[in-house]
Every structure is written in structure tokens, then in C-alpha cells.
Amino acid sequence: MGMSDYVEKGNVRETPFGYTLSIIGGKWKMLIIYILAENETVRFNELQRKLGTITFKILSSQLKELEADGMIVRKEYPQVPPKVEYSLTQKAQSLLPALEQLCEWGLKNQKN
């Protein structure tokens, strides 16, 4: 089935492709998933450092959205200072082969 098979006379947002983009679309979510895939568990500050220019507020909102969509798990440890780790769910891990294909496309097409 191609992408056009899903798009009939309706709103593209209601298609499986639209659903996928609603989960991983935008500037940061795929990068967050990529970092978590490479590192298994990552703390907030480490994520912010690896992403570079993302603000605290935006990273926080992106993580909350990914958690609400069942893509990441937030684990809080009761200690001082508080320790919070993020990791991928099985749902997110099932997306990794598609992200690998995107990386391969980038490798072939990125200008050096």
C-alpha cells in the first residue's frame, strides 16, 4: 500500500500517515527519540545538552507530549536533588526501523 492509497476524499490528518506525523512531527520529537534510542535512558539535562538550542520550556512540553502519546516513559527517583530519567516505550521502539531508513536516506543525500 502506498501513501496515496490512504488519502481519499478526506482530511490527510485522519490517515495513518497523519497520525504518525501527529506523534513525531515537528522540530524536536524525532531527535528526542533518536537520542533515547542511542542511549536507552537519559536525564533531562543531558537531553537538553545533546539537543543544543532547545529551551527548558519547549523540551519539557515535547517530553510531556511524547509521554502522553505513549512514546516515552518518565521515571522519577525520590531523592534530593530529584532525578528523572526518560526512556523509549515498546511503541516507540517499533518505530526505530523507519527512523533507521530516514538516517540511511540522509547519509545518501546529505551534501558533504
Automatic annotation (TrEMBL):
Which protein are we looking at? Answer: HxlR family transcriptional regulator
Any idea which UniProt keywords this protein has? DNA-binding, Transcription, Transcription regulation
* Residue ranges of every copy of the HTH hxlR-type domain listed in the record: 15-112
Q: Name one Pfam family in it.
A: HxlR
- One GO MF term attached to the UniProt entry: DNA binding
